[in-house]
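Why do we care about 3D structure at all? Because function follows from shape, and shape follows, mostly, from sequence. That is the central idea of this module. The next example makes it concrete: a single protein chain, its amino acid sequence, and then its structure expressed as tokens.
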Amino acid sequence: MAVDLLLGLQWGDEGKGKIVDVFTSKYDIIARFQGGPNAGHTLVFNGRKHVLHTIPSGIFHDNTINLVGNGVVIDPVIFKKELDKLDEQNVDYKKSLCISRKAHIILPTHRLLDAASEASKGKAKIGSTLKGIGPTYMDKTGRNGIRVGDIEMADWKKKYRALADKHEAMISFYNVDIEYNLNELESEFFKAIDTLKSLQFIDSEDYIHKAQVEGKSILAEGAQGSLLDIDFGTYPYVTSSNTTAAGACTGLGVAPSKIGDVFGIFKAYTTRVGSGPFPTELFDEDGETMGRVGHEFGATTGRPRRCGWLDLVALRYACQVNGVTQLIMMKGDVLSGFERLKVCTAYDYKGKTISHLPYNIESENVKPIYTELKGWSADLTEMTKASELPQEFNDYVTFLENELEIPITIVSVGPDRKQTIIRKEV
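And the structure:
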């Protein structure tokens, strides 16, 4: 049985959590394959908002296994807080949640290192979420990291102490004023480790292989967005993992030949949190309206998101590197009321018109070239069928389909799981 993928195609915050929640009833297993608590997947149902950071977005469905893969980095403290919220809602996660022994653990000193490194950059900071993600992946590639399986071993605290001491020495190297009480941080950390130990640890690549042999359906859930990929994103303003389809193979132990559908999610416009180039960013009333109507604040950081018109050059690039088979457009409702809409279909790159994403998209090199379309005024949020959508909205979607040459099968017209319209069955 092939593994389907669900990925963000922009700079994150596309609405992956909502669509995973909508899709979960069709799958036996939902598996997170990369990232950590820097992700914020928001789900809305029964009049209540839920934000998940590390736990897969299928956790609210009783009959689905939720797997945290080897490519994920886990902060036990944040993970415990997520579990506490699930306890409040009587979610029986112990029967449905499992964690790969090969997933790496974020230590308190990883977060301190992250803060020290970012502070040392001054105006050149990259906009880190300060969750310790980068330093944890650095220890992973440097072969120093502590994994979930280590905490089952008798000598794991000795290993922890050696790594934490090394981190403290590195923090002093940055020569910035970072105040902390490591004893307090460690007390909370070790309590959270005890909670983590109460969950099911698995050898995830074997688990997934057996599930495939048994014919179970699996959906791999990505975090962040393709333009934040460590290799293919807008480096250095990226995350520290592979957010693209290739990351699902390494983050779960799935062979490339076993990948099925690749669902790509994008907003009807573009947003970005933190630093980094953004060719279609708006600094006018239109951008302010998108942010206000779309409630564009980071689910993890709370920072306001930068807003701009849809960038088809970047979106086409993301579709290519991921092998997207179906597209899902989110937040179409936010564009209601705009008389005219703009879509970036090409770049002016150093005086030459190009339609591909170049090595550098900083503003001194790139200027967006726009195509204008007629907007719509209808409120989409109460619509439940494709036949109710206004013609101008359909024209907008059809234009994007023709440009990208990939079907847009689902459109979202609001945050609730019910506000999801199937346009096409593929």
